[in-house]
Amino acid sequence: xxxxxxxxxxxxxxxxxxxxxxVGIVLVxxxxxxxxxAAFYGLDMVFNIVxxxxxDPHTVNALWILQILGTTIPLLxxxxxxxxxxxxxxxxxxxxxxxxxxxxxxxxxxxxxxxxPLIELLSRINQDMVLPDYLxxxxxxxxxxxxxxxxxxxxxxxMDTVFGAIANVIAIGLFTAIVExxxxxxxxxxxxxxxxxxxxAAVWITAILFSAFHMEFFGFLPRLLLGALFGYFAAxxxxxxxxxxxxxxxxxxxxxxxYLYQHKLVKIDPNSTxxxxxxAYVFSFIIVLFLLFLYHNxxxxxxxxx
Length: 306
What we know:
Elements: H1 11-41, H2 43-50, H3 59-86, H4 90-94, H5 103-114, H6 116-127, H7 136-156, H8 162-196, H9 199-213, H10 220-237, H11 241-262, H12 278-305
Helix pairs in contact: 1-2, 1-3, 1-8, 3-8, 5-11, 5-12, 6-10, 6-12, 8-9, 8-10, 8-11, 9-10, 10-11, 10-12
């Protein structure tokens, strides 16, 4: 039996190739998106978006074109191309199998619901982060970048009807979860498992890269935790789908919460970081650890049986 030549690629080289493909395809996707926006709405629309001028009523449509063509589709193409043509190991690098114990789906749901206080605590710590005086320029740049990202998200999440909310649940909740999990928990995490020889190291390194990828510095810690949870969901089950499910629940819940708040159906601001008290943080931490232990044992029994 002949060995696959791609298997001889060192994981560091695999990672370099993956990053290069990502940069190239994302760049092409953004150029195509900008071209389509310019064709439909004029070149001024492109310049207005770059300058964060969202006054034009067609801005939301233009932003979605750029989001889908510049990020969503490229992040779907990259792992598929990498797994199929570079390493030629789709099963190992994409983990598309549905052969996992279905009770883990319920456990993932519970983890995502119970982890909310813990996510809030990390958000509070992150928001209160202050860099040393000699890094004031960096702190200002980080804050300005965060404000720009928040302004963009606010425009994208403006939902006038329930159909707009459903569309955002599908686009932001489902599609984003699928493409990012194939990319990070599929390809990236697999590369670092091979590189480090340690699943825990691979999960946390991937979680760091996942959080950094979003370029939201004051949301780094909560997204780091989410990335680690998704990483363990995939690593212990051997499938990307439990991670996709958890990712979807996180994103979809955020979209629904924003919709309900916009239409004054709930009074709690989804951006608030002062909903829970400290006992809730402790309770959340303990229960999440217990649920992860349960998840690991259920997934391990399935693997042993197989």
